[in-house]
Amino acid sequence: MFKIYFYTLEIALLSTLIAAAAGIPAAYFTARRRFPGRRILLSFSAVSLCVPSLIVALGYVSFWGMNGTVNRFFGTHFSFLYSTAGIVIAQGFYNVPFITGIVSEAWERLPREQENAARLLGAGETRILRTVTLRQLSGAIGAACIPVFLFCYFSFMIVLLFSPVGRSTLEVEIYHSIRTTLDVSAGAKLALLETVTAFGIVLAYSYVARRSQTTSSGVDYVPVVRRRIRGSAVIFVPLVFLILIFLIFPLGAVFVNGAGELGKVLRSRGFWKACANSVKCGVATGAACTLLGFAYSVAVKLKRRQASVILQTVPVLPMAISSVVISWSATMIFHRGTPALLVALQTALYWPIAYRQIQNGINRISYETDAAARLLSRGWFDSVVRVYLPACRPVLLSAFAYCFAISLGDATMPLVLSIRNFDTLALYTYKLAGAYRFSQACACGGIVAALSMLIFSLGKK
Prior knowledge:
Membrane topology: Multi-pass membrane protein
Protein name: Thiamine transport system permease protein
Shape: globular
Number of strands: 2
Keywords: Cell inner membrane, Cell membrane, Membrane, Transmembrane, Transmembrane helix, Transport
Subcellular location: Cell inner membrane; Cell membrane
Largest sheet: 2 strands, parallel
Strand content: under 5%
Structural class: mainly alpha
Strand order of the largest sheet: 1-2
Radius of gyration: 23 Å
Family: Belongs to the binding-protein-dependent transport system permease family.
C-alpha cells in the first residue's frame, strides 16, 4: 500500500515541478515581455480546467504514441509514453498554462518600489529576480502549484492509460479495488489514506491563498511597460518549443486524427444520446453549483465575515475529495448510480469553483451600495433580489459556464458510477478508445474539447 502511496506522491511532485519549471518562466514573458502570440498563450490558461485529461491523453497517443505523428514522420520508435516519464510529462505540461495564468497576473501587479531600490543599490537583474521578485511572488506561486499538485495527485485517466506494468497510483488502485478485484477493504484503506493526505494539502493551500491575498492588499499597482525579447530569447525559444511539442501539438493532433471519422461519429445514435445526457447533466450541475455558490457568497457577505478563516476554508474542502472516492462512496450508500446522483456528486465537488467566481463579483459591490441596500430594502431577501442578483449577473453566467464545461468533460464519475444505459460524451469517448476505435475517439474527443473551450470562453466574456 505504501509503495503505491509514495509512487503517487512522486508522480504528483515531479509533474508539479515540470509545470512550475515551464509555467513560471512563461509567466515572466507574458507579464514583462512583448511578443507575437502573447494573448494566445495566456488564453491557454484555462486548458487544465476546460479540456478533460482524457482528451490530453488521446492527444499524446496521437502525437507521441508508437503509431503517432512523430514516429510516423521521422521513422523513429519513441516509446516513453507508457512509463512514469510519460505520465509526468503529460500531466506537467497539461498544467503549465494554469500556473502561467495565475503567476503572470500576479507578476503584472507587483509593486516596483523594491526592485527599483535594489537597482539603485547596484543589484543586477538576476539577483533582483532571486532576492526580491520571487519572494514577492511566493504566495502566488504557492497558490498555483498546490492545486496543480492536487490535480496530479488525483489524476485518474492519464495514469490509467499510461501507467507502466506493475505501477499504479492511489486513484487507479482504488478503482481497480472496487471494479476488478472487488476488495472493498483494501479500497477503503487506500481511500482513507488518500483523503487524509489531501486534506492536509488543502489546508496548506488555504493558508497560502490567504497569505497571497493579504500580502497584495492595499497596494497601488503601476501598469507594466512590456519590452521586446532580446537577450532572454535564449530561454524564450526553447520554452516555446517545449510548450508546442508537449501541449499545443498533442491537442491539435486530436482534431487532425479525428477529422476523417467525424462524419461516422455524428451519424451514430449513441453519440447523440450521449450528447443529450451531457447537456442535461451539465445544465443541472451548472445551475446547482451557481445557486449554491451564490447562496454561500451572499451568506458570507450579509454576515460580514469575509475574513473568517473557517468560512474561507469551507469552499476549499471539496478539493480534498477525489472523483473516484466520492463516486465509490455514493455507490456503497445508494447501491446503484443514477443521473441525479451524478449531478449531486458533481455539484458537491464543483460548487467552490462557482463560489470563487461569484465571490469576486459580490466583493466588487461598494460599501455605499451595500449600506443603501440594507437601509432601503424591506429585508435581506429583498436586498439580495434587487441589488446582489443584478450586480452579480455577469459572474453568475461565468460560474454557470465554468461548471457546465467541467461537467461536460468529466469521464471519471460516470465511469465509476456505471449508470445503466447512460453515457456522457466524455464516457462515450473513453469507451471508443477502450474499443480501439481510436480515430473515432479522437473525433468525439475533439468535439468535447471544442465544446468545453467554447462554453468556457463564453463564460469569460
